Amino acid sequence: MNGAGRGDRPIGLRVSEVTVAYNNGHVALHDASFELGPGTICALVGVNGSGKSTLFKAIMGFVKPARGGVTIGELPVKRAHRENLVAYVPQAEDVDWDFPVSVWDVVLMGRYGSMNFLRIPRQADKRIATESLERVGMLGFKDRQIGELSGGQKKRVFLARALAQRGRILLLDEPFTGVDVKTEASIIELLRELRDEGHLVLVSTHDLGSIPSFCDRVVIINRTVLAAGPTHATFTQENLARAFGGALRDLHLDHTDDPGSAPNTYRVLSDDEEPLVFGADGRMVAHRHPHEEEAQ
Ligand SMILES: Nc1ncnc2c1ncn2[C@@H]1O[C@H](COP(=O)(O)OP(=O)(O)OP(=O)(O)O)[C@@H](O)[C@H]1O
User: Fold this and answer.
1) Alpha-carbon dihedral of residues 96, 2, 190, 210, nearest 10 degrees?
2) Per the database record, which ranges form the ABC transporter domain (predicted)?
3) 48 CB less than 6 Å from ligand 1?
């Protein structure tokens, strides 16, 4: 473990004018800038191909920006990763599930950065791996091969690996894709606990409807940062329309049932998950249907 080192302190993240071009010349991100402090859950949203995974890869040091840079707790990326400050939960498609390895081995990998070159786990490593599996409700599966788990169970095991790493920053690439409602709720609960312990959690998701319920901040991207800030100010109809354009279903509801009151106009943006409902003033009413609001 890092003992009383930097790994136990609150750590923020700064992305400054990051431009990433792939070898084929495609510029996936240009001039992307935002800053996040510790004790925060931030959603990263954008259409397919908008550069979310590329941004994670730049933060992880897997791709090198052509311009700009990332600092993690004031440290450059390489140094921050040597100090185990960032844990990453990749998209399911980025993992080779046929690799013959048990759930226990996957979670112990989260401890590699703290082990010596022989990678023999100490009691403390085993204790942390056990606690991490317990925290995601997967301890009972510890001897299973990773390839034999369901999609949602695999996600929870990778989350346990990230927890075992004890990074102060957690990057989660689409953790809710293909998981059931109960698992999503338990992952969100865990992210809230981590936020309250001072972690910074950056989570990319297409599940727009759930964002206002658990994210303090939002970064909206489309090959650059379109908007970044507190959820209430950033997660607006206007910004979402800019980012998603025709990719979201957009309904207008004129709500004129009560002849005695002024008509309310609702606008519903939906990504086929929970709909987002905005009032006539463009402010979010709820992430539910207006008729549900009415029934309360
Ligand atoms: N290794 C690569 N080589 C070339 N182009 C790439 C590479 N990886 C990604 N891209 C391109 O960069 C752009 C951004 O991809 P990225 O995976 O970052 O998007 P994303 O926002 O994570 O998308 P999704 O929501 O579909 O996961 C896309 O146009 C993609 O085709």
Assistant:
1) -70
2) 13-248
3) yes
C-alpha–C-alpha distance, residues 273 and 271, integer Å: 5
Distances (CA, A) of 7 to 47, 57, 85: 33, 21, 6
Is 3 domain-assigned? no
Task: Ligand 1, residue 91: give the atom nearest the CA.
Answer: 27
Backbone angles phi, psi at 213, to 5 degrees: -80, -20
Domain annotation covers residue 239:
yes
> For the residues of 44-112, what is the DSSP string, one character each?
EE-STTSSHHHHHHHHHTSS--SEEEEEETTEEHHHHHHTT-EEEE--GGGS-TTS--BHHHHHHHTTG
Residue with CA at minimum distance from ligand 1 atom 6: 22
Atom of ligand 1 at shortest distance to CA of 46?
A: 21
d(CA 270, CA 207) in angstroms, rounded, equals: 10
ipTM > 0.95 (yes/no)? yes
Summarize pLDDT for 9-63 with one digit per residue, the tens.
788 999 999 999 999 999 999 999 999 999 999 999 998 889 999 999 999 999 9
Domain count of the chain? 1
Answer yes or no: is 271 within a domain: no
Residue nearest to atom 28 of ligand 1 (CA): 49
In this structure, which amino acid lies at residue 236?
A: T
Q: Does residue 2 sit within a domain?
A: no
CATH number of the domain at 120, please: 3.40.50.300
Q: What's the domain range around 210?
A: 13-244
Number of H helices and number of E strands within the chain? 10, 14
pTM tops 0.90, yes or no: no
**Which atom of ligand 1 is nearest the CA belonging to 55?**
18
Predicted confidence (pLDDT) per residue in 50-69, tens digit: 999 999 999 999 999 999 99
205 CB near ligand 1 (under 6 Å): no
Cβ–ligand 1 distance for 54 under 6 Å, the answer: yes
